[in-house]
Amino acid sequence: MHRIAPALLALALLASACGGDSGTTLTVYSGRSEILVGPLFEQFTEETGIEVAVRYAGSTDLAATLREEGSNSPADVFFAQDPASLGAVAESGLFTELSSDLLGMVDPRFSDSEGRWVGTSGRARVVVYDSTLLSPADFPSSVIGFAEPEWAGRVAIAPTNGSFLAFVAAMVVIEGEDVTATWLEGMAANRPGRYEKNSPIVAAVNGGEIETGLVNHYYLLRLQAEEGRTAAANHFLGSGGPGSLVMPAGAGILATTDNTVEAELLIGFLLSIDAQEYFARETFEYPLASGVTPIAGLPPLESLESPIFDLSALATALDIATDLVAAAGLL
Amino acid sequence: MTLTPGGVPGTERRAPDLSRGVRIVLWLAAGIALAPVVIPFGFLVGRAVGGGSKAVNTIVSGRTVELIANTALLVVVVSMTAAAIGVGAAWLTERSDLPGRKWWRVVAVLPLVMPSYVIALTIISALGPRGLLSELFGFGFPTARGFVGAWWALTVATYPFVYLIVAAALRRIDPTIEEAARGLGLTPRRVFTRVVLPQLRQPIGAGVLLAALYTLSDFGAVSLVGFDSFTRVVYAQYAGRLDRTPAMVLAVMLVVLALGVLWSESRLRRGRAFMPKPSTRRTRLIPLSLLQKSGAAAALSFVGLAALGLPIGTLITWLVRKPFPNGMPWGSLAGSVSASVLAAILAVLLAIPTAVLVVRHRTKASVWVERTAYLTYSVPHITVGLAVVFLASRYLGPLYQSLWLLVAVYASIFFAQALGAVRSALAQVSPSLEEASRSLGRGPARTMISVTLPLMGRGIAAGGLLVFLTTMKELPVTLLARPIGFDTLAVDVWSAAGELLYSSAAVPALLLLAVSALPTYVLATRQR
After folding, report:
1. Are A285 and A249 in contact (CB under 8 A)?
2. Which of A22, A211, A258, B437 qualifies as a FRET site for A99, CA 20 to 30 Å off?
C-alpha cells in the first residue's frame, strides 16, 4: 500500500489548493496580453477586494470560444483588443447592455452603437519600420500598396491577431470584399513574415529580422521606454484608408454572468482616471475617458485620418475577413 | 515504445474465471482510461460532418492540397534523415571499434530529453542575420525559419528512436553470420549492406514509423519556425477564425492521415516478421582505419552539436545575458510537476486493471481495448485538445477548464505507455503463482495485491515514469484545455518564444531539461 501514499498526498495537496474560496471571483477573458494589462487587474483587486481570474488568449480566439461556450461560459467580462471581436460577441447576443453611466464616459464613436460594449483605450494602426534601412518616403501612401511585389519578404503581419483581423474586417467594410481578397492574395504571394502578435513583430523589426510590419502604434513606444533609442520607428499612414484606422480596445459584460455588479465595477475601473492614466503612461495608448490626455510625442487623436464608419459593422465583416485570410493561405 | 502487443508465449492462458463484479470493474477502468479521448473524437467527427458545405469547402480547397504536400514532404525527409543518423550511429557504437563508443551512445540517446519546441526555439534564435551565431562569427547566418528549421528540430527529436531500436536489434543479431560473410571475403561495407541491413529491416521500419508519427503529430516545432504543416494550420485556424468548423475539419483530416500511416505500416510489415534469434555471443568489432575513425567522429560530433551543443549552448547564453528576467517560474514548475505526477498515477492505476483484462482475459473486445489505447497515443495531440475543448465547452459544465479534465486527458493520451509497461510486467508473472494463491483460499483481489502487484513493481514504475516525462513536455493539449491561471513550463517556453523574449524562455526550458534528463536517460538505457 505504501505505493499509493504519495498519490493520496498529492490529491490532498491539490484539494487544499483548489478549496478555500471566499467572496466573488470575476472571470475575465482577456484578449489583451498579461504583460500589458495584468497590473491593472491586480490594482482592481487591491482596491475592491474582488478577485479576478483571467484567461489570456487572442481576442478573435476568445470571441470564437465565447460563441462555442454560449450559455455555459464561465466568463463574466470580455476585454478585447479590437472592436471586431467585441462586435462578433455582441451580434451573437452574448453581451448584456451596459449602463448609461458607463457608456456616457466615452465618445460614442468608440463604443457599440447599441451599448453592448464600451471602448477603453484607442490605438492607431501604423507601419513599424527599420529606420536604418528605410524612411517614410519609401512607403506607399495606402496600406494597399504593401501587396505590390516590391515588398516581397519585407513585411511582417500577425494573421491570427485580433488587431490585424479587425483591420482586415475594416478593409472589407471600407474597400469591399473583392479589394480585400485581392490585397490578401497579394500579401500572401509576397510571403510575409508571420508572427503570433504585434510585440514580436516590433522586436523582429528592431532586431533586423525583417524590414517592416503592420501593427498598432504603442508596442514601439513600450520598447523605447525599455531600451531608449530603437532602430525601429513608427509611420502613420495618412490616406484615411484602412491603414490609418484608430480602433478602440474595449470591454463588455456577458449576459450569463451572476456578478453584474462586480463586472460593472471592473469596467468602471477601466474607465477611471487611474486606469486611463495607466493606458496613457504605461501602455502608450490613447485614453478615451475621464479627461486624461495622451502621452507627449504621440500625434493628437484628432490629427489621425481614421476612416469614419459604424464600428458595429465590423462584427459581420470579421467572419468574412477571417475566411478571406484563411482562403489566401495566410493562416 | 512497441506499437504492437506481443507477450511472452505460454503465459497468456486464461486465469481462473473472475466473478462478474470484478470483470465489470476491470472494464470500467479500461473505459475510464479511454473515454476522455474517444468520446470527444466522436463529437469532433460529428461537428466536422455537420459542417456541411463549409466542411466540403475546407476539404476541397487548394490549401488542403498544399498542407498535405508540406506535411508529407516534412514527414518523409525527417524520417529518412532520422533513419540515416540512427542506423549510422547504432552501427558505429555497436559494431565498430570507434574510440569513445560509450560517450557516443550518450550523445545518440540524450536528445530524447529535448522537446521539439525547445530545439526549434534555440535554432531560430541562434541563426538568422542577427542571431547569436552571427554575432559570434561576425557574418550573417541564414535564417532557420520555415522548412529547414522544422527539418532540423524534428530530426534531432526523432533520430534517437531509430537509434535505440536499431542498436538494441544489433545487440541481438547473431554475429556468426556476419563473421562467416567476412570469412568468405566480403568487405565490411558489403557485409553491412548484404548481411546486416536485411536483418535490420524490421527494427528500422519500427523506428521510422515512430519518427514519421512524431513528425506528423508535432505541433510546437513547426509552429515556432512557421512551417505550414497540418498541426500548425489547425491551430492557426482555431485561433484566427471566428468559425471553428474549418479547424475541426482539418483536425479530422489530420487524424485520418495518421491512421493511414499506421495502417500502411501494418500492411508493409505483414509477411516479413523475421526476428533474429537472440544471441548472447559478443561480436568481434570491425576495425576502422584512422581516416574512417576521424570521419565517423566528425559526423557524430556534428550531430551532437546540432542536437545538444547548439540548443543547450544557446539556452545558457540567454540565461547568462539576462538571468531570470521574470524570476524563478515556481508556479509553472509546480503546475508541470503536479499535473504530470497526477497523470502518471491515474494512468498507472487504470493500466493495472486494463492489463489484467488484456493479458489474463484475452478476448476480441480486450484486444480492441489495447488497440484503441495505441491509436489514441498515435493520434496528433492538437486534435485531441480541439475535440476535448469542443465537447467540454458545450456539455461538461464544471469539468470544463478544470485541472481534473486536463489530467484525465493527459492520462488518456499517454495511457498506452503505462499499459505497455504494465502489461509486459504482468505477462511475465506466471498465472500458476496466482492459481496457487487462489487455491490457498485468497480471493482474486487479495491475490492481485499480495502476489501479482509486487512482482510487477518495476514495470509499473517504468510506465508511470514514461507518462510523467511525456506529460511534462506536452504542449498543444495544455494550451487548449488548461484551466484559467494554470501555467506549465512548456506553456512558459511557448509564450516567451511567441513574444521573441528568448531570455524569458531560457529558464523554463532549462528547468524542463533538468527535470527530464536523468529519468529519460535511465529509461532509455534500462534494457542494457
Report:
1. yes
2. A22
